[in-house]
Amino acid sequence: MNRILFASIVFVAGCASQTEAPPPPLPSPAPVIAAPEPTGPIAAPEPVFERIAAPERCQGEGYHCVRVIYGTNRDRLPYDPAGQRAYGTEPETLDDAYEVPAALLQLPTTTRLETGEVIVTIPALHEPGDAIRRKRSETAEIDEDDRSDVFSFLRPPEPFYTYRGFSETVGELFANADDRDALLHIHGFNVSFRSGAFRAAQLKSDTGFEGPVFYFSWPSNARLREYFNDQVDGDVSARALANFLVQIQAQIPEGGELHVIAHSMGTRVFSQAVALLRDNGAWSGVREAPDQ
User: Fold this and answer.
1) Which among 222, 287, 200 has a CA at the least distance from the CA of 249?
2) What letters, b where the CB count within 10 A reaches 16 and e where it falls short, cover 96-127?
3) Rounded distance, CA 73 to CA 167, Å?
4) For an engineered disulfide with 160, which of 140, 141, 165, 167 has Cβ 3.0 to 4.6 Å away?
5) Nearest 10 degrees: CA dihedral of 148, 124, 175, 186?
6) What is the pTM of this model?
């Protein structure tokens, strides 16, 4: 324990006399006070990057990043300064998507497919298989201290406005990866855009998957009582997912494969998309998993 030393000076008044009083003694030098030792919470350990591709590393105290390439037919929301809320719960039907090369068959749809990139921060203290911790509110401000404790978006999701932007970004990820394969996550019922993106990033981080990770987010209402409405929104999203699958497949290097992890109602959306692709001859790369 640090000790603070106090010095005191005692003055003794002498008796009155006729002689001149001696001069007062010089004050004692000020005591040396030791500086207190630093205290506070234990710092989080440095992030471990063995399984994180070089272009996905980001600077931060107690967290690392995963880049997620997304496709969605959700409605885009007004700009959110907190950067955590970008897409809503309704299908987007207003604008046309960017043009793709004529060789990539795109099915006509009633909902607009938008692609983009979002960078998810994962706390260094997160262990594989742990539940995702996040701010309950999607509009809550996130600072550097929060990022060492919860999943978050490093910055707002950034849409691609051209197919070239999508293609070049995916090409960069493959060029810096040790794997030719890619991973696609499709969320299920009662999931927001943000929650599904966190799950896609967790799948890559927790499993140590080396290739790029993709994510398709259909307009789930993210409410427990909206099961049947979610089913309708999922059904109208199958064509948008089919088009996203075609764009992804065009980027995978020769010899590589796309691994799809669809959860709950997401399997219904995926199976419909695959059926559409087969019926239209748009993609011959679908194969069934072997019987167990």
Assistant:
1) 287
2) ebbebeeeeebbebebbbbbbbbbbbbbbebe
3) 19
4) 165
5) -80
6) 0.77
